[in-house]
DNA sequence: CGGTTCCTTGAGAGAACTCAACGTCGGTGG
DNA sequence: CCACCGACGTTGAGTTCTCTCAAGGAACCG
């Protein structure tokens, strides 16, 4: 990701600029085919700080807008009756947050920033209205939803802890990694929740990989040393 | 499901009739809003027999058509490198098979009938083309995909075997059950594969429910005796 | 600095898995 | 008609993988 969020975070945000020339190449607003449609809909929000004080959407609330991620990382999650958080998805630049609730009355999950993030809001009512006139926009949304479905299905399989963690690393590397390093924005607990593993199990999987010299692990900075081995292990998941 | 598949199965199928008045209420062809669009696209296929000789789609192959289920039950699955089948989804009347590959070059999963089934084919190329002119069709497809995504996310959570099985029973009951009985079309092994549980674990969960008098289990015919208790157990999954 | 959260490692517990055996059912063919 | 076969369902016994509980160190922040 060549885009640097730092200037956006430090700059004052008195006005909310239009988001018509998004620097993130995978962002819909950047796409030549859909840029026109999005330009009228999308508005950049002030930088989003991590933590649950600043939720992007709330399970059960009405969902007035979808959100496109320009920079950073967003997670969506549900809270069960015992108060435990279940991470449902991570969203990286170019992803759309809230698709699983599009067209529903209420959001089915909550969402917050994992790290300092920058998102654009897309009003749902206007989006749904525009859908009718803009075939390319409809196709784009359909593809985004389909991709999310495919990812959810891939990770929902029956795999070992090591396979899950390997697949997650490869997935994150493909989205936000460079060459052979990967700076994980989320905590081990959040990874575990997403992969349905205890925090300690994630740690131990990483420790095993490190012992095999498949990677070097310095807190959240992961250096991938043997991507082939990880890929072979994670092959059944195929992310 | 009031629709009876028997006549369709026994009737000769020399011609491939149009599917303009689908008896399945959740089928787009049945829906007044989208019926016109579907009528031109959809064609009824000959009855589908269970078993892997008669696959509806094949992982890696081109996917020329989507399929709407009129009657019966379809499963989609992947085969890992060790030859193990992983069931990804069950499709009941009204469901669309192949959505997770729509717009992709190749199918990412295979699909076969679980029981004798009746499906309609929807040519992908024509569907995608028509999408541009028909906002309601686009919205309909988007909703179907969104529903599939929501279901996948719900079942992908971190839950106990009993919770999974309870949620699955309620899910199946909502789709193909009557009053308080449920005739499961699939085997315990297929349920286990879908829920990421061993066959024996599914059996034991059912045995535990039976012991608590929550249900009576006669092979594939399940009589639900305490839906409230099952629902309370499965609540976190919320299907 | 204290306090908090996160990461890591060890030890024990428990849930689900594997392996095995057996009964049932439906299809097939002698 | 019945013996045989394979697939399915069920139950028991032992194993294993992951979780829970616990503790200590590191990083971060007010």
What are the defining features of this structure?
homodimer; 239 residues; alpha+beta; four-stranded antiparallel β-sheet; three-stranded antiparallel β-sheet; 8 helices; 10 strands; 19% strand; globular; disordered N terminus; DNA-binding
Task: Please indicate the percent range of residues of chain A in DSSP E strands (runs of 2 or more).
Answer: 15-25%
Given as residue ranges, the uncertain stretches of chain A (5+ residues, pLDDT < 50) are: 1-16
Overall residue-averaged pLDDT value of chain A: 85
State Rg of chain A.
18 Å
Report the structural category of chain A.
alpha+beta
How far is it from the N-terminal to the C-terminal residue of chain A, by CA?
19 Å
Oligomeric state of this protein? homodimer
SSE ordering of chain A: HHEEEEEEEHHHEHHEEH
Question: Biggest interface between protein chains, with counts per chain?
Answer: A-B, 42 and 42 residues
| Share of helical residues of chain A | 25-40%
Figure out the total of helices of chain A: 8
Adjacency order of strands in the biggest sheet of chain A? 1-7-2-5
> Which geometry of chain A do the CA atoms define?
globular
């Amino acid at each position: 990701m060549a885009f640097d969020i730092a200037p956006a975070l430090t700059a004052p945000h008195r006005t909310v600029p239009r988001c018509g020339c998004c620097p993130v190449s995978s962002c819909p607003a950047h796409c030549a085919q859909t840029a026109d449609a999005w330009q009228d809909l999308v508005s950049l929000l002030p930088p989003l700080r991590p933590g649950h004080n600043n939720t992007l959407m709330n399970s059960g609330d009405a969902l007035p807008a979808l959100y496109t991620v320009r920079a950073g990382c967003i997670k969506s999650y549900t809270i069960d009756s015992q108060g435990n958080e279940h991470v449902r998805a991570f969203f990286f630049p170019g992803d759309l947050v809230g698709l699983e609730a599009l067209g529903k009355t209420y959001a089915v999950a909550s969402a917050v920033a994992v790290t300092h993030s920058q998102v654009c809001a897309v009003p749902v009512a206007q989006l749904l209205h525009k859908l009718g006139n803009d075939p390319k926009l409809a196709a784009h949304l359909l593809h985004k939803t389909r991709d999310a479905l495919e990812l959810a299905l891939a990770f929902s399989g029956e795999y070992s802890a090591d396979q899950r963690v390997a697949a997650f690393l490869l997935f994150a590397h493909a989205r936000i990694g460079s060459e052979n390093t990967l700076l994980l924005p989320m905590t081990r607990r959040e990874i575990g929740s997403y992969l349905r593993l205890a925090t300690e199990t994630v740690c131990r999987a990483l420790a095993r990989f490190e012992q095999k010299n498949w990677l070097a692990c310095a807190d959240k900075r992961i250096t991938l040393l043997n991507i082939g081995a990880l890929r072979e292990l994670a092959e059944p998941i195929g992310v």
